[in-house]
Design goal:
alpha+beta, Serine Threonine Protein Phosphatase 5, Tetratricopeptide repeat, 3 domains, 9-stranded mixed beta sheet, two-stranded parallel ribbon, disordered C terminus
Length: 627
């Protein structure tokens, strides 16, 4: 049986603790009472009050509900429950509870005040919610707009701002997930496009190196479709366009110069000057064309004489004699333009010779960089000098090569290239006379070597073969190297044969049958797309195209007709066997192995953030500058 006296004392003790704000001690006393009288409704209520003072509002609401279950007509318990709910932020529920209390005691000032305060708070919350909903909606709308514009990073940021306000918005969460997926897809596509753009850019570089500017422009356009804002590719295309324009201008200027030469030989000096002037509008710095124009102007000025009267028959005889002399003078002038070594003189009846300009190479203009040293400058100078010496556009070179090709081998270079190269090589090799140059820095042009009667050193032989190859439609380059300890240095030409091994085999068969040889030497390179290039040697030290390699010290330099160059290190050789058509013996293809490192300052820039290989495979990034 419950001892009411004991319970009364405990209730009094708990009440004292509560008044002293010793809520934990009061709570302990109430628990003691409930252990004696577990259904004491007053203790339920008082325990709820104590828990509210301790800030434990959820537990307090539970004990208030227990008290109300047995005593639902007590307005004070309803009021205390409403206060606990309000403190939990459940303002709407608190208002309902206060309404329940007022139904019992409608004029209770405290309950009325509590309900009024709760109503104001609810209104504030509603206003804030509307404002937040509006802000969240604005962020959500911005995110959708960015999503439509494919600005996925901005869309994700906007959706995150909205979710800070309305974290449970399902549609908002779905839109953010969509933006994340689109961003990841976009990143993958950009990486893929960047890789493809780099491949096209590398193709353009390869074409540029061979002076195939139209093909280079097309390759750069393909790269820009994938990466339209790449400033490096845009600059590469601009360089290719400029070189293409210069090439066209040079060709047109050459034609106008040749037309002027024709008028000059006919004695039509005014017409010749007009042609030369038109050529100079295209290539204003061409000294050759300037000299031709100046020669024509000098003769034209000398030919202008004042009119005079012949008074007698004797005078007519004198006039006839004068005309005969003038005609002889004109013949003398016509003969003089055929001579290529005669200087002009204002005191003699001699005319400076006309010279036909060769291929004009603009040279190499390096981007400003702190890494350019004396070695690089020397390489640039050597590349420019070699490029100018390979004057394959000069009619002297073209006419010489054309005359030496046998009629049986006439036709497109693509079908008869090796045959034609062999025809010309045979004639040059059989007539060549070795004569040293005055220094290692002296470069004789191909046209001068022809005028010199095919006399010169190994470098002259290489430059001539390179120029002739280019003049009949082929692609060539000049190799220079030194033996170990640099005891001997040598130069030879190479001609591009094919990208296809079967075509290389066909070339080998032809050379094997023509020269009765069993070994053909070539260099092999693979570009970034996996396309292999085969280059055939044309060396004066050999007695046939594709002759043995010069034994270098592991390094050799490659110079191209357009001024580009490569420096190859750690070179070597490997023997590959293939069969020669019509022979029982096998012809060996001797292949130069792939270089392991490249030092290069060629003609055009590339993206330096990605390792790039231009024609020559290399495991290290290749640094490229501009022409």
């Amino acid at each position: 049986m419950v001892d009411q006296a004991t319970i009364s004392k405990l209730l009094q003790s708990a009440s004292e603790f509560f008044k002293l704000q010793k809520y934990s001690e009061a709570l302990a006393v109430y628990d003691s009472i409930l252990s004696i009288d577990p259904i004491n409704v007053e203790v339920f209520w008082r325990k709820g009050q104590t828990l509210s003072k301790l800030g434990k509002y959820e537990e307090a609401v539970t004990w208030f509900d227990r008290a109300l279950f047995s005593n639902s007509k007590n307005a004070s318990i309803w009021n205390d429950k409403g206060i606990a709910l309000f403190n939990l932020g459940k303002v709407s529920e608190a208002i309902d509870v206060f309404t329940q209390a007022l139904a019992i005691t409608p004029n209770d000032a405290n309950i009325l005040k509590n309900k009024d305060f709760a109503l104001k708070k609810l209104d504030e919350q509603n206003q804030l919610k509307k404002s937040n909903d509006s802000i969240a909606l604005n962020w959500h709308t911005k995110g959708i707009d960015y999503l439509k514009q494919e600005k996925y990073a901005e869309a994700i940021t906007a959706f995150d701002e909205a979710l800070k306000i309305t974290p449970n918005d399902t549609i908002l969460k779905n839109n953010k997930d969509l933006a994340l997926k689109k961003r990841d897809d976009q990143t993958r596509i950009k990486k893929s496009n960047a890789a493809l753009a780099l491949d096209w850019n590398n193709n353009g570089l390869g074409y540029f190196k061979r002076a195939k500017y139209a093909e280079a422009i097309n390759a750069f356009d393909q790269a820009l479709r994938l990466s339209p804002n790449d400033t490096i590719i845009l600059k590469n295309k601009d360089l290719a366009l400029e070189q293409h324009r210069l090439k066209d201008s040079n060709a047109l200027a050459l034609g106008l110069n040749n037309s002027g030469n024709g008028y000059f030989k006919q004695g039509k000096y005014a017409e010749a000057i007009n042609e030369y002037n038109q050529a100079l509008r295209l290539t204003p710095n061409d000294e050759t064309i300037k000299n031709n124009r100046d020669n024509a102007q000098k003769i034209l000025e000398k030919s202008k004489t004042k009119p005079f009267q012949i008074p007698s028959v004797v005078g007519y005889v004198i006039l006839l004699i004068f005309i005969s002399g003038a005609f002889g003078l004109i013949l003398q002038h016509s003969n003089l333009i055929q001579q290529t070594d005669q200087a002009s003189s204002s005191d003699q009846q001699t005319i400076p010779p006309l010279v036909t300009p060769g291929d004009v190479h603009p040279g190499i203009i390096l981007e400003p960089t702190s890494t350019i040293d004396a070695t690089t400058d020397a390489m640039n100078s050597e590349a420019i000098a070699t490029s100018k010496a390979i004057d394959y556009m000069n009619p002297i070179v073209k006419n010489f090569a054309t005359a030496l090709v046998k009629k049986i081998n006439g036709g497109p270079y693509s079908n008869y290239g090796v045959n034609q190269i062999s025809d010309v090589w045979d004639e040059i090799y059989s007539q060549w006379g070795y004569v040293s140059d005055p220094s290692t820095n002296y470069y004789t042009s191909a046209s001068d070597t022809i005028n010199n009667g095919l006399n010169g050193n190994c470098e002259d032989f290489a430059i001539l073969n390179a120029a002739i190859t280019e003049s009949i439609g082929g692609t060539s380059r000049v190799i220079t190297a030194c033996s170990p300890n640099e005891s001997i240095c040598h130069a030879y030409a190479e001609v591009f044969i094919t990208n296809n091994y079967l075509d290389l085999q066909s070339t080998t068969d032809y050379l094997g049958n023509r020269y009765r040889i069993k070994t053909v030497y070539y260099h092999e390179y693979t570009d970034p797309q996996g396309t292999t290039e085969y280059w055939l040697t044309l060396d004066w030290w050999a007695n046939h195209p594709g002759g043995p390699f010069f034994q270098d010290d592991g390094t050799y330099k490659i110079f191209y007709p357009n001024g580009a160059y490569d420096v190859i290190t750690n070179s070597g050789s490997t023997v590959i066997t293939s069969h020669v058509s019509g022979q029982s013996a096998a012809t060996t293809l001797l292949k130069a192995s792939t270089a392991t490192s490249v030092t290069q300052q060629p003609v055009i820039i590339i993206p330096t953030s990605t390792p790039v290989r231009i024609i020559i495979p290399t495991p290290t990034p290749v640094k490229i500058y501009t022409v």
